[in-house]
Amino acid sequence: MLGTQNFTVVVLLLLLLCSNVNGGPLAYIACVTVCSSGCSAGTALTGTPLCLAAWQTILSSQSAENKSLDQESTKKIASFEPKEEKMNTKENHQITNGSHDAVKLAPEDMTSKDYYLDSTAHFAVHEELLKDEIRTKTFRNAIINNRHLFKDKVVLDIGCGVGIFSLFAAKAGAKLVIAVEKSNVIEYAKRIIRANRYDKVIKLIRGKIEDIELPDGIEKVDIIIAEWMGYCLFYDSMIQSIIYARDKFLKPDGLIFPDRATMYMVGIEDRDYKEDKVEWWSSVYGYNMGCLKNYVMREPLVDTVDKRQICTDHFPLKTFDLKTMTIDDINIDSKFRLRALRDDYVHAFVTYFVVEFTACPQRTVISTAPGAGYTHWKQTVFYFPDCATIKFDEILEGKFTCKVNLENTKKLNFNIDFQFDGEISNLQSKNQYFMKG
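Predicted structure:
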């Protein structure tokens, strides 16, 4: 017969096995009962055979449970791996040729981080450009009114944005329009072009012009369209990309829209605004912050200038012909000579540009001159510390230089040195300016 201790163990073993509970409450009860019968956890292995069997069963149940938990945990960890891989894939797509570009996302899925890395992907940027009527209507007229230049031609639209110039070219009869855009705004362009049923004529390519190849085995195009101009003509401009595309993709007799630009300079009277912008720092709520005036003065101001402020004639600093110019021609190093139009004070110099579509039979231009109408480029104002008191027909002479950082066109360096010997005042001035973004 079994003793009381062994009988207890047998009963509990049967109860444990019949319950089909691995490591559950009944196993715990068995463990406690075994231990209360004289076999502790530390001595179970040296107890009676039945006690040993009971303890091994419990340990086996616990091991099975742990194994099950480990497998479950592994599955849970594995379930996160695809998401992590997806995030890494996203990050990898953001880096293209050393630059941080936005991922190819639906516009509605872009986050603030995506827009920070790809600010031109936001529709508001393009809204401002489209509402610039001088800019947009001039491009439209240059294209639509010259269908004979576009009919059955292959057109390359560089920096297409939402695709407005591509739509103009397609409407003008182009056989194929290749629209290239590095920003994720191209996702908007796809929808717009499809909505207007030009998706069979316009092909969109995401990337920098320097990194892409033309589709369908095409090697050369007939026309390049690009709004390549920036503030002060070169700030954040695409001129290098246009020169590259011209040399690689444009046929020898091909056209560029627009293909010529001239930078101009003029003197203005601007005492009130200069005082508000510069002299204001002399006393700010009773505190002298005049040390900032020099820094304020060295940063050119992009703003709209009233044509009534102009007090000298206009001087052409340099003309750029995109059909023939090279990278080395981008910088400006020009002497200037401004003649006074009336008795007045000169507080600043202003630069602006005029671009031309010389392929058009009728003269077609975009002028950013003061008084020519509002454009998003506005004008660029260069204040200098003193002012020149001029009389009608007197001459103010000097030298203007602009150096473009070819690695980052958001960095421009300027020097304006001039001298003036007039009846009322004499002035010599050397000034450095910086545009940075």
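Summary: The first strand starts at residue 95 and ends at 96.
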